[in-house]
C-alpha cells in the first residue's frame, strides 16, 4: 500500500497519465504532420532550390574558369604565332633590303661603267677632232711654207695628201 500511495503521489507530482501522454503524442504527431506539410516540405524545396543555384553557380564558375584558361592558352599561342610571324616579316624585309642594296650598287656600278665608257669615247672623239685640227693647221702652214719655198702654186689636194701621209707616219712612230 505504501507503494501505491507513493506512486499516486509521484503521478500527481509529475503528472504522467497514460491518456494524457497518448493525447500529447497524438498532438505532437499532428503538429509534426502539419509542420511537415506547411513548413518542412516548402523549406526543403527552398533549400534544394538554393543548393541547386549554388551548384549551378559553381558549375558556371568552373566553366568560366576553364574557358578563361582556354582563352589564355589560345591568346598565348596567337601571341607566339604573331611574334614568329613578325620575326619572319622582319627577316624577309632585311633580305629584300639586302637584295635591293646589291641591286642599287650593281646599277650604280653599271652606270659608272657606262659613264666612263662615254667619257672615254668622248675623249677619243675630242682627240680625233684635235688631231684633225692640227692636221688642217699643219697643212695650211706647210702649204704656205712650200709656196714660199717653191714660189709656185702647189695644188692643195697634192699637198694635203703629202701632209696626211706625213702625219700618219708621225703617229706610227709613237
User: Main β-sheet: number of strands, strand sense, barrel status?
Assistant: none
The chain-level structural class is mainly alpha
Give the fraction of residues assigned to helices: over 70%
Beta content: under 5%
Count of helix runs: 3
Straight-line N-to-C gap: 178 Å
Can you characterise this structure?
It contains 3 helices and no strands. The longest helix is centred in the middle third of the chain and has 133 residues. It has one domain. Helix 2 packs across helix 3. By secondary structure, it is an all-alpha fold.
Structure, briefly:
By secondary structure, the chain is mainly alpha-helical.
Q: Keyphrases for this structure?
A:
0% strand, mainly alpha
What's the SSE blueprint?
Blueprint: H1 2-14, H2 18-150, H3 156-173
Amino acid at each position: 500500500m505504501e507503494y501505491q500511495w507513493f506512486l499516486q503521489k509521484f503521478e500527481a507530482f509529475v503528472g504522467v497519465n497514460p491518456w494524457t501522454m497518448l493525447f500529447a503524442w497524438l498532438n505532437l504527431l499532428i503538429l509534426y504532420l502539419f509542420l511537415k506539410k506547411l513548413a518542412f516540405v516548402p523549406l526543403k524545396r527552398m533549400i534544394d532550390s538554393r543548393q541547386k543555384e549554388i551548384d549551378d553557380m559553381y558549375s558556371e564558375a568552373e566553366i568560366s574558369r576553364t574557358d578563361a584558361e582556354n582563352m589564355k592558352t589560345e591568346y598565348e599561342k596567337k601571341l607566339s604565332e604573331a611574334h614568329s610571324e613578325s620575326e619572319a616579316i622582319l627577316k624577309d624585309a632585311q633580305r629584300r633590303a639586302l637584295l635591293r642594296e646589291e641591286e642599287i650598287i650593281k646599277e650604280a656600278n653599271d652606270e659608272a661603267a657606262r659613264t666612263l665608257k662615254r667619257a672615254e669615247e668622248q675623249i677619243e672623239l675630242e682627240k680625233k677632232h684635235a688631231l684633225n685640227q692640227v692636221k688642217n693647221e699643219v697643212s695650211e702652214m706647210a702649204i704656205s711654207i712650200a709656196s714660199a719655198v717653191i714660189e709656185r702654186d702647189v695644188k692643195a689636194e697634192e699637198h694635203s695628201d703629202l701632209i696626211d701621209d706625213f702625219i700618219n707616219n708621225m703617229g706610227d712612230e709613237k
